[in-house]
Amino acid sequence: MDPTDDLVADVFARACPSRSTLEDVASKWGILALVALAEGNYRFNALRRRVDGVSEKMLSQTLHTLERDGMVRREVQATIPPRVEYSLTKLGAKVAERLVGLIELLEGEVPAVQAARATYDANK
Fold first, then answer.
1. Which positions of the chain have pLDDT values less than 70?
2. Quick one: pLDDT at residue 82?
3. Domain ranges in the chain?
4. What are phi and psi of 72, to 5 degrees?
5. Helix/strand/coil (H, E, C) string of the chain?
6. What's the pLDDT score for residue 80?
7. CATH number of 3-123
């Protein structure tokens, strides 16, 4: 193994793999899918209902991306018809835990955000 392969991850560096992973996680649908899966396992259509507004195509792409990044597990059960269930991996659960905290903070500050927006809009 080349010693340069052990470089420290730096999300601010253009070529660092952590940047593309952050983009996958921090996308609107990535955040919502991870936080929904933190509640428990979901089948595709149930997850789509939970993440209100996401299209079938976008949810599918998001889940594939998060699975590739090692955050989501896709389990196909041998039933007729086949049953597919999504869950978080250990890494996905750690990431989702941080996102839940961020969402709780934002939800708790909605009145402050609305007041700031109203003030901003009135001054423009």
1. 1-7
2. 84
3. 3-123
4. -125, 140
5. CCHHHHCCCCCCCCCCHHHHHHHHHCCHHHHHHHHHHHCCCEEHHHHHHHCCCCCHHHHHHHHHHHHHCCCEEEEEECCCCCEEEEEECHHHHHHHHHHHHHHHHHHHCHHHHHHHHHHHHHHC
6. 87
7. 1.10.10.10
